[in-house]
């Protein structure tokens, strides 16, 4: 391994010095770089660096651990800055005055629950204790003993490993929350990357395309937003890292590294760069998926899931936009921000039911289950399979109640034995005298037999009947012709994320000129010009080849879809979500379905209201979102990212508002709110007054609906009598 230059020696000496000092109590006023110094080792043989690069790296080793977050950002934009330490020092830093070393004051001064852990405490008490900062039951979920032997990283590092982690230069706050994931790893330095353009915007992250200068390849850098003062945000960030470090499979996005520095509180996750996601790909103009292609994607999805489940990981947010596809057609499951560990044998640890994007959320979670397993990911997979063949989302509910209603209408009401077996918290309000009959095969009679068979299994109401990813891979679906093709045989598509980013850049470049022109044309109009959509507005129904569907049935299925939608109380029109740009001209992340027509987009806005809890919630709350009088129009006017950037309080509120947005009439004989104490899932119901409010509102809506129906009936009778 590495060659150590003479310039590194002082580090070694300092490092020894530092370890001596560690035996004394940690003094926060002491310079951080005196306390912990990174032991940097480079593998020069494997890199293609020239002399200039070596200088860059050496210089970076000397100085990067003193960079503040702002300077780290600057290095990522221009790695050459790191060569000239003095130059970098000239970069104005809003946080740190030149010459003054940043300290971890913020981390030190925060809530006692999450204090900076002193080294000796850390090694004697062990990291696992410190993970108890998590109060949510799900976060205490541990890796089952029998699974640990399969894991490359032990659940809690040994003392020796801990020492290595700390001396590798990881910031202490990260060691305290994700130490086990950092064993045998060293942080990557910002100056070994060159940030190119922004390619994605998640709710709690920004994703950039970047060049890895060390390995000379293109990567994706996901900058995660979290706040060291906010334990929840740190916890979610840490869990994503811990989970991803335990996974290693061609169909699971691999966490290649982390960019951070001992004194930095910003963090970048390094991933292989992926050209597409399934939603983006399906909406590329002219793209038509063939059946072997769909099977190829489904096989890869199930293989990735099989791996996650075998390692005790539930993804809990399987949807098209989290399935990334590279230039060679390889699909990888991404975004483990909501993932958790589970014990397949003993389901003793309670998990939150408030996970999975609404349209892909299984009935047991909607009914508030807190003990569940692989079935949740399999249900979402079934929804994706159905969507790929139907060309539209198969269960596009707008509220949790409506979602459950749609599920029962399609998949049948749960049986008495289901209710008895699962004993779910919110079951009371949803048990009906006249149950819905299962209509899946009737509804999708045009699907090939083997597709229907798999769909029937994956969309079983009882999660125990959904079987497993492994058995789905063994199903007739993958044995029936046309067989799944190899990813390498798939058509090559232009890298859609890059195209999007280029279009955005172009748009940004042109905007000031346009703005100037507009301004010079007169300041009469205060209207903000709509930014043209980046992607064409194609739905999957148009983009998938369906040789098994004749024209008649295509029209019929379209008619059913139209009827389904028009039977709903009208929803106001608003711009398409997927192609919608935020005010800065960036394409916002799309968490909805695999199709993107206007009607579907409408639903998605509501889905956003139901989106899973924030992973890295910001500390600020958008007062507009919090306002009780906020109209749906007001919500719709906001860029999606803003909508979802809420802290837990705001999120709880938004979900409570869910019932107010309920524009779809629910059959009162099916759902009886007076019978139900709870209809949303657990964590939303912290404040009983809100629940009362919500139920009152629900009652009011139902009464209003009955009144309207009654009136319509009377009008009809009157008309009949007159004629
Ligand atoms: N390795 C990658 N290569 C290319 N694009 C990526 C990569 N990882 C993530 N992205 C894109 O970046 C965006 C946000 O990523 P991600 O979903 O991981 O963030 P998030 O904050 O968890 O988002 P969400 O709000 O959807 O849950 C998505 O559009 C995704 O397609």
TrEMBL record:
Residues 19-30, 495-530 have a biased composition (Basic and acidic residues). Residues 193-478 form the Protein kinase domain. ATP binds at residue 222. The keyword Acetylation does not apply. InterPro entries: CDK, Kinase-like_dom_sf, Prot_kinase_dom, Protein_kinase_ATP_BS, Ser/Thr_kinase_AS. GO terms for molecular function: ATP binding; protein serine/threonine kinase activity. Residues 576-586 have a biased composition (Polar residues). PROSITE patterns: PROTEIN_KINASE_ATP (PS00107), PROTEIN_KINASE_DOM (PS50011), PROTEIN_KINASE_ST (PS00108). It comes from the Eukaryota. Keywords: ATP-binding, Kinase, Nucleotide-binding, Serine/threonine-protein kinase, Transferase. Pfam families: Pkinase. The keyword Transferase applies. PANTHER family: CELL DIVISION PROTEIN KINASE, F21B7.34. Belongs to the protein kinase superfamily. CMGC Ser/Thr protein kinase family. CDC2/CDKX subfamily. This is Protein kinase domain-containing protein.
């Amino acid at each position: 391994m590495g060659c150590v230059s003479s310039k590194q020696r002082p580090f070694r000496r300092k490092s020894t010095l530092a370890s001596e000092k560690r035996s004394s109590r940690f003094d926060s006023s002491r310079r951080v770089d005196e306390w912990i110094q990174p032991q940097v080792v480079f593998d020069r043989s494997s890199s293609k660096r020239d002399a200039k690069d070596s200088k860059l790296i050496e210089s970076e080793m000397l100085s990067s651990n003193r960079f503040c977050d702002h300077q780290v950002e600057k290095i990522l934009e221009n790695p050459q800055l790191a060569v000239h330490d003095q130059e970098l020092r000239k970069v104005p830093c809003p946080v740190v005055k030149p010459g003054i070393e940043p300290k971890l004051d913020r981390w030190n001064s925060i809530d006692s629950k999450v204090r900076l852990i002193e080294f000796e405490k850390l090694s004697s008490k062990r990291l696992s204790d410190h993970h108890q900062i998590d109060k949510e039951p799900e976060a205490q979920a541990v890796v089952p003993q029998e699974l640990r032997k399969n894991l490359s990283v032990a659940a809690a590092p040994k003392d020796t490993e801990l020492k290595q982690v700390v001396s590798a230069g990881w910031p202490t706050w990260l060691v305290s929350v994700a130490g086990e994931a950092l064993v045998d790893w060293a942080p990557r330095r910002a100056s070994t990357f060159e940030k190119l353009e922004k390619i994605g915007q998640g709710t709690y992250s920004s994703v950039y395309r970047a060049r890895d200068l060390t390995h000379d390849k293109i990567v994706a850098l996901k900058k995660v937003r979290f706040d060291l003062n906010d334990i929840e945000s740190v916890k979610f960030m840490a869990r994503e890292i811990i989970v991803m470090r335990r996974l290693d499979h061609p169909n699971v996005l691999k966490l290649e590294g982390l960019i951070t520095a001992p004194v930095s509180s910003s963090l970048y996750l390094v991933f292989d760069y992926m050209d597409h996601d399934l939603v983006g790909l399906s909406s590329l103009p002219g793209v038509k998926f063939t059946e072997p292609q769909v099977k190829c994607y489904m096989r890869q999805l199930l293989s990735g899931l099989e791996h996650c489940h075998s390692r005790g990981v539930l993804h809990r947010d399987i949807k098209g936009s989290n399935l990334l596809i590279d230039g060679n057609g390889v699909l990888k499951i991404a975004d483990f921000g909501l993932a958790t560990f589970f014990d397949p044998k003993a389901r003793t640890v309670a998990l939150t039911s408030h996970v999975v994007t609404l349209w892909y959320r299984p009935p047991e979670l909607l009914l508030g289950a807190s003990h569940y397993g692989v079935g949740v990911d399999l249900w979402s997979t079934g929804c994706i399979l159905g969507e790929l063949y139907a060309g539209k989302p198969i269960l596009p509910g707008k509220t949790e109640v409506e979602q459950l209603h749609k599920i029962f209408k399609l998949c049948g009401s749960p049986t008495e034995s289901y209710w008895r077996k699962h004993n779910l918290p919110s079951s009371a309000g949803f048990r009906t005298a006249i149950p819905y009959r299962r209509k899946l095969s009737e509804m999708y009679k045009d699907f090939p037999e083997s597709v229907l068979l798999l769909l029937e299994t994956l969309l079983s109401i009882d999660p125990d009947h959904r079987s497993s990813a492994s058995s789905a891979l063994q199903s007739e679906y993958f044995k029936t012709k046309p067989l799944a093709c190899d990813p390498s045989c798939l058509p090559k598509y232009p890298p859609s994320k890059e195209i999007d980013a280029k279009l955005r850049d172009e748009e940004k470049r042109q905007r000031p000129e346009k703005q100037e022109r507009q301004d010079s044309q007169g300041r009469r109009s205060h209207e903000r010009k709509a930014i043209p959509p980046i992607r064409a507005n194609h739905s999957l129904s148009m983009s998938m080849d369906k040789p098994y569907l004749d024209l008649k049935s295509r029209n019929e299925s379209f008619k059913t879809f139209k009827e389904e939608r028009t039977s709903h109380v009208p929803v106001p029109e608003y711009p398409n979500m997927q192609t919608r740009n935020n005010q800065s001209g960036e394409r916002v992340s799309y968490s909805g379905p695999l199709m993107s027509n206007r009607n579907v987009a409408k639903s998605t806005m509501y889905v956003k209201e139901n989106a899973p809890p924030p992973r890295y919630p910001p500390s600020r709350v958008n007062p507009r979102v919090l306002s009780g009088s906020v109209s749906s129009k007001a919500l719709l006017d906001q860029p999606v990212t803003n909508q979802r950037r809420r802290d837990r309080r705001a999120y709880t509120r938004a979900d409570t508002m869910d019932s107010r947005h309920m524009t779809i009439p629910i059959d009162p004989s099916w759902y009886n709110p007076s019978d139900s104490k709870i209809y949303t899932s657990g964590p939303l119901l912290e404040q009983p007054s809100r629940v009362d409010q919500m139920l009152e509102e629900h009652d009011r809506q139902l009464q209003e609906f009955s009144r309207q129906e009654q009136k319509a009936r009377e009008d009809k009778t009157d008309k009949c009598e007159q004629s």
